[in-house]
Amino acid sequence: MTSKYMNHKLTEYIFRTQEEDRKRIASELHEGISQMLYSIYSGLQLVENKIQNDDVKNFTNEMIHMARRSIEDLRLLSTELYPHTLDQLGIYKTMKSYLKMYSETFGILVESDCSGNEKSLSELQNILLFRSCQEMILNSAKHADATQVNVFFTWEEKGLTVRIQDDGIGLNEEAVKEQSISGLTAVKEMLSIIEGDLQFTSKLGNGTQVIIKIPYLYETKEW
Question: Does domain 86-215 have CATH number 3.30.70.60?
Fold first, then answer.
């Protein structure tokens, strides 16, 4: 076996191990803490309807809003850790749902669209693609000062293409050549597991575009 092949398998093993841990923690958050918070939220609503004192009623209302916000934050955290809807809904619908939460959290306008006949991908392909898209759009929010992000899925004959484009501050040519973009190397390593490819283009003052391509090589393989 070549060293390149061994490195590839090691990367895959590390990724799988990390995802199993994330999946377990996400389940505990969703089925445990999230359910308890929702019970508290519902209970406070019932209590509020019985309160006569205005000061206590206002205080209870503030607690209700805090509980609801905590539920929303926990929901986003759980999805970021592991999007359980991937198995049932597929990558596009899961990504669209995540983008809605992303938009509400960061105040960024998001447009998404899908063309072509959607294919069924393996669990490994789905989670790798989700992680790659997630990393790139988080860069748009945290580092690019973007106000809008567009995400387009194109299902082609031999593979899937995802184009992510933002209207952020962009990068100069030197930064692009050096690939000094947060998370870019990690995303390329993840995509290499399924023989995927990433193209990154950016221009200072004119935003950034990322094109991810993956072949349908693993659609019948199980994780």
Answer: no
